[in-house]
Amino acid sequence: MVSESVDILNAFALLTNFIIVPAIAYGSQLALGALAVTLIYSILRFSNFGQGDSMSFGAVMVILMLALFQSDWANANFGAILPPYEFLSFVPTALYALPFAIGFTAIYLLVMDKLVYQHYRRIKAKPITVCMASMGLMFVTGGLVRIINGPERMTFDDGARFLFSVRDFKEFTGLTQGIAIKTSQFLTVTMAIILVAFLFYFLQKTKTGKAMRAYSDNEDLALLSGIDPDKVVRVTWLIVAAFTAIAGTLYGLDKGFLPFQYHQLLLPIFASVIVGGIGSPMGAIVGAFVVSFSELLLTYAYKKFLIFLLPGYVPDSLVQLIGVEYKYAISFVILVVVLLIRPTGIFKGKVV
């Protein structure tokens, strides 16, 4: 009986380490990107196909600022720019560059709005036209990122830090299967909670947030009420820039920086928005976790899990439902199924 309970605990620890913890972190990253898409759709009334590449732009700004901070020129003129505080040693150095990355991302998005989207708002172009424009900017942003940093994969050394390792967990519990939580995963979930709380407070309690909601509900009535549409647009892009740069940086810390991988993120982000209910912030969050858990549950190899649960049974295969290389196909299937069965999504957003 004791050995059986230990096997169950090991099986649970295995799923926690390879599915539950990564899915929560990945879902938090998707949620931030999905909230940015939701804000643009609800307030500016178009689907932003450039969200994934904008996240890569925010991440590459962090990489550039870190390179500047650590350069010989910076050390010679300003000394050590990165704070050496011991009590903050667990914080990835990438986060020190994040405020600058948010600023550059905001400037970039505001300039793109001024050069492109403002024209379409002025002529009251159809949403599909603006969507095509965003698709064009998607390729522009992706190309710019590759010009700045190249197409190769990069890894953040800080992304390999752990709050506690598998070895620590094994020594503490005595189990044969350990659980590890990376610092980046902990910070991802923590920052996602803070940002989501801020967004809901801002939209519900502040004057500017209420103006944004009014503009989203009825543009003509909002204009008659004296709401400044230009201010609403600027604030929307500023919030989107913050969520985008933070999501892109956290994703890079957790999984490494690869521009094409960010480009592929567009599919799970849009699946998250549509599953939850397009235009619904809460729906975007719930949809993100539905997508993240679906991807990991369906692509995980359950061989070792079954060995823990069924002593003496050793499967011939990995017992993997879908190969990891097809994980983005899962998002596509979820998106199609939701559009066919419940086009309004879980929280009854707008029909696509």
Helix content: over 70%
What is the count of structural domains? Answer: 1
- Which structural category do the helix and sheet elements fall into? mainly alpha
The biggest beta sheet is recorded as:
2 strands, antiparallel
Outline the low-pLDDT stretches. none
What is the ordering of alpha helices and beta strands? HHHHHEHEHHHHHHHHH
Rg to the nearest angstrom? 22 Å
What general outline do the C-alpha atoms trace? globular
How much of the sequence lies in strands comes to under 5%
Number of strands: 2
The number of distinct helices, counting runs of at least 4 residues, comes to 15
CATH topology: ABC transporter involved in vitamin B12 uptake, BtuC
- Report the mean per-residue pLDDT as an integer: 87
> Order of strands across the biggest sheet?
1-2
Task: Tell me about this structure.
The chain is an all-alpha fold. Helices cover 72% and strands 1% of the residues. It is built from 15 helices and two strands. It has helices spanning 2-44, 51-69, 72-78, 94-122, 127-149, 166-173, 183-205, 207-217, 219-224, 229-255, 259-264, 266-276, 281-299, 303-309, 327-341; strands at residues 162-164, 181-182. Strands 1-2 form a two-stranded antiparallel ribbon. Helix 1 (2-44) runs antiparallel to helix 10 (229-255), helix 7 runs antiparallel to helix 10 and helix 13 (281-299) crosses helix 15. The longest helix has 43 residues, at 2-44. The protein is globular, with a radius of gyration of 22 Å. The mean pLDDT is 87.
